[in-house]
Amino acid sequence: MKLLNTFILKYRESERGAFLFILPYLIFFSAFVAYPLIFSFVLIFHRWNIVTPMEWIGIGNLARLIQDDLFFKAIGNTLLFLSIHIPLQILAALMFALLLYSKIKGRGFFRSVYFFPFVVSGVVVTIIWMQLYSYEDGVLNTIVMWLGFDRIPWLVDPSFAMPSIALMATWKNVGLYIILFLVGLQTIPSQLYEAANIDGASKFRQFRHITLPMLNPTIVIVFVLSTIGGFSLFIEPYVMTGGGPMNSTLSAMLYIYNQAFNFSHMGYAAALGFVFAIIILLVVLLQRKVIETEVYT
User: Fold this and answer.
1) Where is 46: in which H helix or E strand?
2) Residue 107 host element (H or E)
3) Torsion angle of alpha carbons 223, 225, 228, 233, nearest 10°?
């Protein structure tokens, strides 16, 4: 009996010790995740401009959202960005990963160079690309004119603005996905390529029937991460265009930010945020289902 009591006492002491170890995280989670999430959900059913007390309006914010053409315009802009950014991101990252995986001199240096833009501040990168995209004296238009063509209105024409932002975002983020593809390439058994060489398979057939199928899990990860990152598009349009011209680069995140901090419609911004989060969840789940179905069939 004494031995049992001793065991119970030590178990309780260890339980208290474990609780003390996780207490800092519980405090952080409660203050910066749980409370803001609950407060945002409460805001959905209120009108609040930070200064005056909250006013209960029920589903008024949701009813307004359904009739808000500008929000659906922002969703359409975000989807356009994703339709350009994701394929370009995957192709560029895979191409550079294959190049860096081969035995070339300075491989470590080039891997660092390609990853560097990812760790640089998004604002800094955006300002640099604004100079590159400048209509009058930008580097890109200087090259275009040197080739004998007219200047391209990269950021001042609604037809070019969002594709230009997608190109810049791809350049900034490609380093991360290069690393992911390099990890995937290193997990492919070399025996598969040796057997293919013995059978006389060309490099293209090896890539088609060995490399791509073995990289499918990595492609799924890159697809999902690129989608989530693309839905978070904010800094680029905020700094480069402010959502213009003619709202052609107004992303969903930028629209939510404007409603919250420019117009002080905190309740409506919370409703927009929750609906947007549901859209992201549905898109990611649909992507995973479609991609994994193609992978395993």
Assistant:
1) strand 46-47
2) helix 107-119
3) -100
Tokens 């339980």 label which residue?
A: 15
Burial of 187 (0-12, 13-18, 19+ CB in 10 A): exposed
Q: What is the pLDDT of residues 182-201, one digit of tens each?
A: 888 888 888 888 888 888 88
Phi, psi of 46 (to 5 degrees): -135, 160
pLDDT digits (tens, 9 = 90+) for 250-295: 999 999 999 999 998 999 999 999 999 898 888 888 877 776 655 5
Cross-strand partners of 46:
56
The CA distance from 56 to 64, in Å, is 15
Whole-structure pTM value: 0.85
Q: For residue 105, which phi and psi values (nearest 5 degrees)?
A: -70, 140
What's the token pair of residue 169? 């975002």
Residue entry with tokens 């500008």 = 70
Contact 152, 144 (CB under 8 A): yes
DSSP letters for 146-206: HTT-PPP-TTTSHHHHHHHHHHHHHHHHHHHHHHHHHHHHHTS-HHHHHHHHHTT--HHHH
What is the number of alpha carbons within 13 Å of residue 219 lying toward its C-beta? Answer: 19
